[in-house]
Specification:
Layout lengths: L3 E10 L2 E11 L4 E5 L6 H8 L7 E6 L2 E2 L8 E4 L11 H11 L4 H14 L15 H13 L5 E5 L7 H16 L3 E5 L3 H7 L2 E6 L2 E7 H7 L4 E8 L3 H4 L4 E6 L3 E6 L5 H11 E9 L3 H20 L1
Parallel strand pairs: 3-8, 3-9, 6-7, 7-8
Antiparallel strand pairs: 1-2, 1-4, 4-5, 9-10, 11-13, 11-14, 12-13
Helix pairs in contact: 2-3, 2-4
Length: 308
C-alpha cells in the first residue's frame, strides 16, 4: 500500500492553473522532496493532499484509498506560514493542538515536555509565543506536527528561520522518524538539505512535473561533468581550456569547472599541470542546485519568450 498517490491532479484559480495534471507516488518510509521555484504549485499541491482545497480534476489517494477527512488523524503537517497564538503559552498550545488530533491532555502534556527537551526549548515551555524568536516558533510548530504520532508527515519549509545548529537538530529528528518507518513529504528551497535527506524528488514548474525519480538516478542522468580543482600557481590554464570549459568559477587557488558535453577531463588536467601545481582534481556529479537551474532555467526562458 502506497501512503500517498496523486493521479493527474489539477487546480485552477480563475484563469490561472496552479497545478496541471500532476502525478506522483510516495513509497512507504521514504523522504520525498517536492521542489520548485516560487509559484510552481508546491503549496497548492500540499493543500489538496490534506483537504484544504479540492482538485478540479484527478484524484488524491491516502493510505490506499481516496482521501477522506478521517485521514488527517494519521497526517502531521508543518505549514510554511506560522500559525501560533501569540498570547498563548507554548505548552498550552502544544496540548491544544494534540487534543485536536484525539490525544488526551495528560498524554499531550507529557509528550510535549519530552519534545521540548529534545529540541532544547524546555526552558521556554511556559512562555508566550510572542516572546519567542522565529526559530523557536518554528520548532514549536514542528512539535505540534508530530505530537499525535502521525504515519505521514508533511514538512513545508521546515528549516525556515533556523540557524545551522537547529537545522541539524531537526534534520536528525527527520532521519529518526524515517528509521521508524514514517513517510515524509519535504518541500523546501534548501537544495543542500534535499540532497542529504530525500530518497526521491519531484521537481514542479508552472504546476507541471518536469523531473521525477530517485536522487541517484537523476544525478546519474545528468552525467559527471563538473570538475573541482585546487591548485597553486598560474590559473590562466582556464583561458587556454576554452574548447573544454562551458563555464567556471575561479576563486584564486580553487576553481569549479563545468565541462562541455563530450569534453575530456584528463585533457583539462594536463593543461592545468603545465602551469600550476595541482593538489586536488575531482570529477563530481552535478549538485541538485545545478540540476534545478539546468531544468527550470530553460523552461522559464521559453515561457518568457512565448509571452512576448
Amino acid at each position: 500500500m502506497q501512503p500517498v498517490e496523486l493521479k493527474n491532479v489539477s487546480k485552477q484559480y480563475g484563469n490561472f492553473t496552479a497545478v496541471d495534471r500532476l502525478s506522483f507516488t510516495i513509497a512507504p518510509g521514504a523522504i520525498y522532496g517536492l521542489l520548485g521555484p516560487n509559484g510552481a504549485g508546491k503549496t497548492s499541491t500540499i493543500r489538496m493532499m490534506i483537504g484544504i482545497t479540492v482538485p478540479d480534476t484527478g484524484e488524491v489517494r491516502m493510505f490506499g484509498e481516496p482521501f477522506r477527512r478521517e485521514h488527517l488523524q494519521r497526517i502531521g503537517y508543518l505549514p510554511e506560514e506560522r500559525g501560533l497564538y501569540k498570547k498563548m503559552k507554548i505548552l498550552d498550545q502544544i496540548v491544544f493542538m494534540a487534543e485536536l488530533h484525539g490525544v488526551s491532555a495528560a498524554d499531550a502534556r507529557r509528550r510535549g515536555l519530552a519534545w521540548c527537551e529534545r529540541l532544547q526549548i524546555a526552558d521556554w515551555a511556559m512562555k508566550k509565543a510572542e516572546e519567542l524568536s522565529k526559530g523557536m516558533q518554528q520548532k514549536i510548530q514542528f512539535i505540534t506536527a508530530l505530537l499525535h504520532d502521525p504515519e505521514f508527515i508533511i514538512m513545508d519549509e521546515p528549516f525556515a528561520g533556523l540557524d545551522p545548529v537547529n537545522s541539524t537538530l531537526l534534520k536528525d529528528v527527520l532521519l529518526d522518524l524515517k528509521k521508524q518507518g514514517r513517510t515524509i513529504l519535504f518541500s523546501t528551497h534548501r537544495m543542500d538539505q534535499v540532497e542529504k535527506l530525500c530518497d526521491d524528488i519531484c521537481l514542479v514548474n508552472h504546476g507541471k512535473s518536469v523531473l521525477q525519480g530517485t536522487m541517484r538516478d537523476i544525478k546519474a542522468s545528468f552525467g559527471r561533468n563538473t570538475v573541482q580543482i585546487d591548485y597553486e600557481g598560474d590559473g590562466t590554464f582556464l583561458e587556454r581550456a576554452g574548447d573544454l570549459v562551458q563555464s567556471s568559477n575561479n576563486y584564486g587557488n580553487s576553481a569549479e569547472i563545468h565541462l562541455k558535453p563530450g569534453a575530456d577531463a584528463q585533457q583539462l588536467l594536463r593543461l592545468a599541470a603545465q602551469s600550476a601545481r595541482i593538489s586536488r582534481f575531482e570529477i563530481m556529479e552535478p549538485s541538485l542546485e545545478e540540476i534545478f537551474i539546468a531544468t527550470v532555467g530553460p523552461a522559464e526562458e521559453r515561457a518568457q519568450t512565448a509571452a512576448k
